[in-house]
Amino acid sequence: MKPYHHLFKNKLIIIILLYGVLTYIFLNYNCSSNLDIQGSGCKELSPQYHFKSSIPNKRRTIIGIPSSKRKNQTYLFQTLRTLFEDKDVLTNKYMFIVMLSTFDVAWKTSMVSNLQMDFSSQIHSGILQIISPEMHFYPQETLQAFRGEKRKDYLIWRSKQNMDYAYLYRYVYQKFNFKYFLQLEDDVIATSSYLSKMEPFIQKHEYLDEWIFMHFCRLGAIAKLFRKSDMPVLSEMFQSFYSSIPCDWIISLFSNGKSFGCALDTRFSTSKKDSICMWKLFPTINHSLFQHIGVESSLLGKKNSMIRI
């Protein structure tokens, strides 16, 4: 699914237009309205804090990593090691939030113990925080165990992934003073000096008022950088569409809702408009800063092929 107005060329145009209307409503939603939605962005979240420091929670960029249980493999520790190898993590510009989003107490207890052992200095310095969401935030069907039925298992997995994003985005928005949010997964590795490559790119493009998100990886929802101000809307959309469409489609709908101005600009021809809109709205770094390494998915039985990016 392309990340902007190409959606309207899809043969399912009526359905997409309906989602577009809903997206517009979300983009104009704010906490001052009379809406009283259970679990809405206005409602304060209270996750389980497995460990956090008392360091002030002011950072330029928050890096969020939701992590779910896999049957035979864990990639999170390898991911964190490559992230923390960059010396720029010590500049107090960045904070990493790991959200353990599986409600298996034994697994979470083991993970927290190992994270505290392997990354104690990052935790105590305030660079790394570990949380676990409240179970009641999740619809019951997203908490069901996999049944060995491919279609049903996929829908459970996809719905829970959307709710994970909804919770993480909302929590980070509510709790921290920051400017940007970078979405990562728990099965990627970072290139060397990734922060020193990412920061100049942000500084070069952040003056463009029109940008919607920046790309630091060319695969799925990995390594998209959002403004803090957009996170409540994204959280609401993940939660409202959790059982309907995948997370990357939700991000595309969000992008469509914010890119109408460029898409309708009559100063450009259609061909020029596409490239200009992409450059202005979705700045993309030339070389991906993150590589996906996860072969075993958190969806039971699903194997991912290695994609070199």
Description:
It is a single chain. This protein is 39% helix and 13% strand. The chain has 309 residues and is α/β, with parallel strands linked by helices. The chain has one domain (46-292): Alpha-Beta Complex (Spore Coat Polysaccharide Biosynthesis Protein SpsA, Chain A). Helix 1 (13-27) crosses helix 8. Mean pLDDT is 81; it is low at 1-14, 32-40 and 266-273.
CATH topology: Spore Coat Polysaccharide Biosynthesis Protein SpsA, Chain A
Helical content (DSSP H or I, runs of 4+):
25-40%
* Uncertain ranges: 1-14, 32-40, 266-273
* Strand line-up in the sheet with most strands: 1-4-3-2-5-8-7
Number of strands: 9
Q: Using the alpha-carbon principal axes, give the shape.
A: globular
Q: What oligomeric state is this?
A: single chain
Fraction in beta strands: 5-15%
Q: Could you spell the SSE succession in H and E letters?
A: HEEHEHHEHEEHEEHHHHE
- Distance between the first and last residues' Cα: 18 Å
Integer count of domains: 1
CATH architecture: Alpha-Beta Complex
How does the helix and strand content classify structurally?
A: alpha/beta
Tally of individual helices? 10
The pLDDT mean sits at 81
Could you name the CATH class?
Answer: Alpha Beta
Going by CATH, the homologous superfamily would be Spore Coat Polysaccharide Biosynthesis Protein SpsA, Chain A
Largest sheet: 7 strands, mixed
Gyration radius, rounded: 19 Å
